[in-house]
Amino acid sequence: MSTNSISLIAILAAVLILLAAGGFALGGSTSAHQTATGTILSKEHKPPGTYTQTPAGSRREGFWTPTAIPIAECFIFEIQLDSPPGGIVRYSTNVILGRRFEKGNQVELDYEVRGTILGKRAYVLDLRLKEAAKSK
What we know:
alpha+beta, 2 domains, 6-stranded antiparallel β-sheet
C-alpha cells in the first residue's frame, strides 16, 4: 500500500471516530426523577388552535392535500423553583387540571434534567399543590 492510501484511511478513520463521538455527545442524557418546590409566577390560557401539516417532496404517495391537526387548549404555568436546580421552568397542562392552580400557589413538582453537552433543560413531569403533596 502506498503512503497516500494509508493517509487517506487514517483520515477517514479519524473522521468516523469524531462523528461517533459527536453523536454520542449530542445524543442526550436523562437524569433520575427529582422533586422540587416552587411558586407559580404566571398562568396563561392558550386557546385551541389548528396546526396545518403540508406534505413536501415529489413522492407524497397520495398525500397531496394539507392535513389539519387540532391542538387542544391548555394552561401554561411559569414556576420559580425554590430548591435546586433553581431558576424558572414552564409546564403546560389541560384546562381541567389547570383550574386547580393559580398565580402565587406553592407547588411541588417532579422533573428530570435532559440534554446534551450543548445545554440541559429541566422537564416537568408532574405538578401538585404543596399542601396536597404533604397529605400523601
